[in-house]
Specification:
alpha+beta, Rossmann fold, four-stranded mixed β-sheet, 4 strands, globular
Length: about 90
Amino acid sequence: MRGLCRRNGWEVDRVFVEEGESAKTADRTELKKLLHHCRTNRGRIHVAVVYAVNRLARNTQDHLVLRGVLSGYGIKLRSVTGNASGRCRAIRQ
């Protein structure tokens, strides 16, 4: 993930790691922290990078809602790969 950020000139602002919480629900501790961080830093955070989209949300509806929320904050969602990981980074450009 840091390689993708480095290649794109994105500065990692904060890293959020879900430890043992499933992406089956959007009611997750670190996801809530990520969304709060993105909301309170609106205009300063431009990209949220996840290792794998299916680790952000397992069902399509949750994924679309999360993408819409981030988009509403002016934040693009980017994924490194389709492999599993629980990390998400808030990026400043």
